[in-house]
Structure formats: C-alpha cells, structure tokens
Design brief:
Blueprint: E1 6-10, H1 14-25, E2 34-39, H2 48-58, E3 66-71, H3 78-93, E4 95-100, E5 103-105, H4 109-119, E6 126-129, E7 145-148, E8 156-159, H5 160-163, H6 171-176, H7 180-186, H8 194-202, H9 209-219, E9 223-227, E10 232-234, H10 268-301, H11 304-320, E11 331-332, E12 337-339, E13 344-346, E14 351-352, E15 357-359, E16 370-372, E17 377-378, E18 383-385, E19 389-392, E20 397-398, E21 403-405, E22 428-431, E23 436-437, E24 442-444, E25 448-449, E26 454-455, E27 460-461, E28 469-472, E29 477-483, E30 488-491, H12 506-516
Parallel strand pairs: 1-2, 1-4, 2-3, 6-9, 11-14, 12-15, 13-16, 14-17, 15-18, 16-19, 17-20, 18-21, 19-22, 20-23, 21-24, 22-25, 23-26, 24-27, 26-28
Antiparallel strand pairs: 4-8, 5-10, 7-9, 28-29, 29-30
Helix pairs in contact: 1-2
C-alpha cells in the first residue's frame, strides 16, 4: 500500500500548528509519510510576527519521511491556497490527505485514511474519506464506518480522478436548486445551509473552497466515508480561525477501533440520525448568533452601571437553570462552590463532595470548560480550576483534598504584579476512565492520566501518565503497569512496552466498566455530612 502524502495548510497560529503537527507525529504511519506544508503569507503587518513564528517552527519539524515547506510570497487566502496545493499534490502523487492548522488527529488517523483510500480506490461513487464524525456522542449502536452524501472539510482525503471533478463555478447548480426537491436534497434534507453558502460563494460574499468541493461531489452523486467516532479534533473554536468563530469546542478524542464497511450505500437509519444531529446543532448555532447580536447591541446603548445591573440579573436567572447540566441520579452538595455553572457539565450517577470548588477561569461562549463524566466520585474539598478544559472521564474516583489545576499563572514579566498577569487559557487536562486518585494529589497543567491508572496519595502529577499505571511521588513517577497477558500489576522495569497492544482502548474499556457497574447507585452520604452519623 502506497501511503498518501499529508498536505497541511497553515497561516498565523503557531500554537495550533504545533499541536496539529505533534499529533501527526504520534501517528503509526508518520515516519513513512511525506508531509507537505503550505504556509500562507501575511495579509497585513499585524499578522506578520505570527506568520514568522509559524515559519520558524516549521523548519524544526521532524518525524516524517520527508518534510516539504512551501512559503507563499503573497497572501493567497485559505480557499485559493487549498485549491492550488491539493491540485498540485494530488496530480503528483495520485492521492492526498488534507489538514488545516487546527485539527488534532488520533494516533490511528493516518492508518484509517490510507487504508480507506486503498480499499475504496476505483469505486465510482466514493469521492472522499474523512476522520471527522457526527455520531461521536451517540450511545446506541452505529456502524463502525458509514457513508453519507455530504463532504467534510475537517480532515479529508481523495484521489486524483475524483478531484478532477472539482469546479468552483457553480452558477448552473444554483439555477437547478430553485427546484425545491433538489434544494432539499442538496441541504441534506434541510439539516444544513449548503444552498445559502453556495449562493454567498457565487456572489463573492464568502470565500469557501469547501462548498465548491461539496457541490462538485453532489453533482456526481458522490459519497464520503465517515468513522462512527472522531479521529480528529477541531481546536480552532477560539475565534482564531477563518470560519470557526467561537462555537462549542470539540471534545478530546478517545480510542476507537474501526472496521471499514463493505456496504457502499447510504443507510437510511444513519442518514436520519445525522440529519437530526445537524438540525439540532444548527438551531443551537442560530440561537447563539442571535444572542451575540443582542449582546453587542446592549453594549452600545447601556451605561456601565446598567450593564453591571443587567449582568447580576442574568447571572441569577442562569443559576435557576444550572441543573440542566447535571445528569440524573447525580448529587452536588450545597456547600460546593461553583464559578461559571453554565460552563460546567456533570454526568449521571456522579457525586461532588462537600466544600469542593469548581472554578472556570476564562469563559468562552458555548464551551464546557469543566466536564465530569458518569459514575464518578469527586471527594470532599477538591479543587478543579480550568484552563481551556478539565475533562474527568467516567468512573473516576478522587479522594479528599485533591487539586486539578489546569492552568498556569503567567510569570514572564516580574516587573508586573503577578495577580494581574493572568493565566494560560489553552491547556487541556484529562483524567481517563476508571482512574483512582489518592488523597491530597495535585495534578498540574496540560497533562493526561491514562485510563485504568492509580495515583498514590500526596503525589504531584506534572507529566502524562500512560494507561493502566500505578504512579506515586513528587514528581509523580510510574512504578507499575498492568500486564494483560498475566493479569497482574508488574514493576515497570519488568513491563514489556509491546504488551501495551493488549490494553483496551478507552472507548472499549468504558463499555466493559458500564457492564460491570450496571445498576450501581452512588451513596450520597459519601459526599456530604448532612445525614449525620448514621453508623
């Protein structure tokens, strides 16, 4: 199997670019893949420093078979740059995998894309592959992979013969879409606004290669392969991207084993499910846009005193509805202190112990900054202080006095009061499924504690802990791993790294935990003293 080249389009976001490349470097096929990077030139003087920072980083990239950097001398814009770059690369190589600079991939992403390119090569109706998924949150059974008649711009791959149909002139299609039945099909049963986007593109109100690609595929009745769970995460929902704005962030990726389907058809049940998901999402986005418009209007007409009064009133109203973010059978003690309830989400059958503090720092519109899963026990006097996100997966148990500090104080300038310098706001801290955190543990910064792990009391975690580990100390170090071959914890010096292949991925692990913990109800008395001494 000949591997497809990876084409990455970057501009002025060094942090996003680095995260995208670092994720690719962890992919199984990275060392055997060609990476081709198109770096667009700055639009103006303000963007120049960040463009330079990106380009300074690009020349340090290793971990691929080859790294080719094309630095544009003029600003092409994303649409023109992608159209030109994809056309050249797919002409030279026959296939292409396309990413933008805000897409973090799972370690299996390249394997999935290349295997799918190989399997469906030559099939008349298969036009593209994507690592994105609409069904990531669907609990019911969904096929491991499935086809839809819509494309995705959040990671995609195609072949030379299919890209040859790309056409950014679609005036004929716009005329045809005046027919209601065709327009409805083009808009995926009215679950998307594709016809509106196409019209705006045609009248030069937006500059989108993606709607032109979808239109080209639509004309040929083409299909796109999707995985049931995402193999790519969009980290561009922070206002830094061209088209992402400030919508809700994607959740971090979980492990997922896929099977490429042999059914090259659109299954009605999956199509209807995705339509419902998209309709709900687009309705939420519409309400969010209306809300932001109202905010801007009020900011212009209200005095500072009126704004402050309105803020207090809205905060009190929001507080009445916070329970919508708390799942069934969960208990949050009345002594728990929360700053930013609208940015906190708590799963089902979860306890939050008394005097715990959930602190949301930089609050972003429609973003859950603190996410606590199902069947969790958060002990008494815990502190969760978020950067971009703190994610506590299912079945996590923490003892008393634990601290999860997702952000770091900025201290680069000692001539300024540290209380005014602020904190980092792009870090993600994740605690995997069925992690047991001992009393007094501190977890600091953008770290991940892998699923099935145990952290000893009073430990200070400053680096990632791999799955199924026992780790202790300050700084926290792994002392044991679980050997699935002999079903025992073994000292880390006797653990063969090859045995990690036997460990279940988090997605599969959670399925087992749900089965084992079926029907268990968390005892509320463990989280509060209000019931007195019952024993």
């Amino acid at each position: 199997m000949t591997l497809a080249p990876i084409v990455l389009f970057v501009y002025n976001r060094p942090w996003h670019t680095q995260k995208t490349v670092e994720a690719l470097q962890k992919n199984e096929l990275a060392e055997d893949s060609h990476l081709i990077i198109y770096s667009d030139s700055s639009k103006n003087d303000n963007d120049f420093p960040q463009v330079k920072n990106v380009r300074d980083y690009l020349i340090t990239i290793i971990g691929f078979k080859t790294v080719t950097i094309i630095e544009r001398e003029e600003n092409w814009g994303l649409a023109n740059s992608i159209t030109d770059g994809v056309t050249k690369v797919v002409h030279d190589y026959g296939t292409v995998i396309v990413l933008e600079d805000d897409l973090v991939t799972s370690p299996k992403f390249l394997k999935f894309m290349n295997e799918a390119l190989y399997k469906y090569n030559g099939h008349e109706n298969v036009f593209s592959i994507t690592g994105y998924s609409f069904t990531d949150d669907v609990v019911t059974d969904v096929d491991s992979t499935y086809f839809l008649p819509i494309t995705s711009s959040w990671s995609w791959a195609t072949w030379k013969d299919k890209w040859s149909f790309f056409n950014n002139k679609n005036g004929d299609l716009i005329i045809q879409l005046q027919k209601e039945s065709l327009r409805k099909r083009f808009n995926f049963n009215d679950s998307c606004f594709y016809s509106e986007m196409l019209s705006k593109q045609h009248h030069n109100k937006i500059d989108s290669w993606a709607i032109s690609w979808y239109s080209s595929v639509f004309k040929k009745n083409g299909l796109t392969l999707y995985p049931a769970k995402r193999l790519v995460q969009n980290i561009g929902y922070d206002g830094s991207g061209v088209h992402c704005g400030d919508a809700q962030q994607d959740k971090p990726l979980i492990g997922f084993n896929y099977i490429l389907t042999d059914n090259i058809i659109v299954k009605k049940n999956i199509s209807l499910l995705v339509e419902q998901i998209l309709k709900k999402k687009n309705n939420q986005n519409l309400l969010s846009r209306l809300k932001n418009k109202l905010k801007k209007t009020l900011k212009k007409i209200l005095t500072a005193q009126q704004k402050q009064l309105l803020f207090i009133v809205i905060s009190k109203i929001n507080l009445l509805f916070y329970k919508k973010n708390v799942g069934k059978k969960s208990y949050v003690d009345k002594s728990v202190h929360v700053l930013g309830w609208q940015h906190v989400r708590i799963g089902t059958n979860t306890l939050i112990g008394e005097q715990t503090w959930l602190n949301v720092n930089d609050k972003e519109e429609n973003v859950d900054h603190i996410i606590i899963g199902n069947n969790c026990y958060i002990g008494r006097r815990n502190l969760l202080s978020s950067s971009l996100k703190i994610i506590i997966s299912d079945f996590v148990m923490t003892s008393n006095d634990c601290k999860f500090l997702g952000n770091n104080h900025i201290y680069s300038d000692p001539m300024r009061p540290y209380i005014l310098t602020g904190t980092t706001n792009r870090d993600i801290q994740k605690i995997g499924a069925n992690v047991w955190v001992g009393a007094g543990v501190n977890v600091l910064g953008a770290v991940t504690i892998g699923h099935g792990s145990i952290i000893g009391a009073a430990s200070v975690v400053t680096k990632d802990i791999p799955p199924f580990s026992i780790a202790v100390g300050n700084p926290c170090k792994v002392i044991k791993r679980f050997d699935f071959k002999i079903k025992q914890w073994v000292s880390v010096e006797f653990f063969d790294a090859d045995k990690e292949a036997l460990m279940p991925l988090e997605y599969d692990y959670i399925k087992v935990l749900r089965q084992e913990g079926k029907g268990f109800i968390m005892p509320k008395m463990a989280a509060t003293s209000k019931f007195g001494d019952l024993m």
